[in-house]
Specification:
Number of helices: 6
Oligomer: single chain
Radius of gyration: 16 Å
Pfam families: DUF4276
Largest sheet: 2 strands, parallel
Helix content: 40-55%
Mean pLDDT: 89
Number of strands: 2
Strand order of the largest sheet: 1-2
Shape: elongated
Structural class: mainly alpha
Order of helices and strands: EHEHHHHH
Strand content: 5-15%
């Protein structure tokens, strides 16, 4: 099982510790405590899940061809480090391209089919994907 949560404004280390503590109190073996015998992996989407979109801009462009060729500068090197609220930044990118769509579920439905884990530059996405691969191939 993988537990995924948006970091939003929380301190990442404190949030991770809370998730781990909750899993332990439920008597679940976590990946952090046993990398080979785990039952649950706790993962955090750094800031927001939308950071992962900025990590695979090709997927975004395949979903919304009108957006700029490159993501905003603050999301290029490490999309998890941008200080701005990412969902608002993503709405801004869409609006700049003439797209009036603020539905997060619709973004996910359109972008997800085009995501390629190997291409994604978001460290939090990479950590999540590694757990998914481990779960799929124990």
């Amino acid at each position: 099982m993988i537990v995924l949560i948006d970091r939003d404004g929380d301190d990442c280390a404190q949030l991770k510790e809370r998730l781990e503590k909750e899993a332990r109190s439920a008597r679940l073996v976590t990946r952090a405590t046993s990398p080979t015998e785990w039952v649950v992996a706790t993962r955090i989407a750094a800031r927001e899940l939308e950071n992962w979109y900025f990590g695979d801009w090709t997927a975004v462009r395949r979903s919304f061809s009108q957006v700029a060729e490159r993501p905003p500068a603050s999301y290029r090197n490490n999309p998890d480090c941008a200080a701005k609220k990412t969902s608002e930044a993503f709405v801004g990118v869409l609006r700049d391209a003439g797209i009036r769509l603020e539905s997060k579920p619709t973004w996910a439905k359109r972008i997800a089919p085009h995501l390629e884990p190997e291409r994604n530059t978001s460290p939090s996405f990479r950590a999540f994907w590694k757990a998914v691969e481990e779960l799929a191939d124990p």
